[in-house]
Predict the structure.
Amino acid sequence: MSAAAPLPRHIAIIMDGNGRWARLRRRPRLVGHRAGARAVRACIELCLQRGIPALTLFAFSSENWQRPPEEVRGLMKLFLGVLEREVDDLHARGVRLRFIGERARFEPAIRARMAAAEALTAGNARLQLTVAAGYGGRQDIARAARALAEQVAAGRLRPEQIDEHLLGTQVALADLPPPDLFIRTGGELRISNFLLWQLAYTELWFTPVLWPDVDAALLEQALADYAGRERRYGLTSEQLAQGGTEHAA
Ligand code: IPE
Ligand code: IPE
Ligand code: MG
């Protein structure tokens, strides 16, 4: 990859395949989730090294609450442990950590850790790391619509003022550029209710590699592929070559 190759400003990842990784080893699914937590570190490291300023990781979907209670309990324990162990190091490296998704269902100890991590790292700017936990894309859009409806009901907004831009200010990650690159590991070719609004013009990259096996070399492959994409935003290649029309992403 040449030095001039465009880098994504924001990568969004569905970290999938932990359960299958464990099954291949005849181990419980939670062993796969634990191994997956290690791959998260490699991914953060790559963003820091390459100067990629925003990373959003799908850790737990709104639908994942319906998994067997034992798996959900194990994931919560893992989540709490990671928060306890990793936040100070992330802070020392200039990472700003935030969470998106419905928090009410998380146990108080986890919610407290999330809030503390966000407060501690609020002033950091080297990497914007967002963890989607209890997150659903449809829920995100519905909440945004409700927030605007409340403003209309309160007389602060007229319905005709609602447009794409205004709705976009109410969804998650509104203060970041939309993801340039989406990665899904684990071989499934679907979005699974991740960032539905935010991914409108994101470049999609899928790999059969299971999340716990992800390393820097694989992520470099995704970056190299991304660098070769032509992002047309509905225009023609000729228009892009003329450089006349700027896309307001
Ligand atoms: C992703 O791995 C992690 C979570 C959804 C929490 P999976 O647990 O979905 O792994 P597979 O897809 O069953 O292999
Ligand atoms: C998506 O993976 C959610 C996360 C990785 C957190 P799933 O494993 O839940 O998705 P489906 O069920 O295969 O669509
Ligand atoms: Mg899965």
The beta strands are 10-14, 54-61, 95-100, 127-135, 181-184, 203-206. The mean pLDDT is 96.
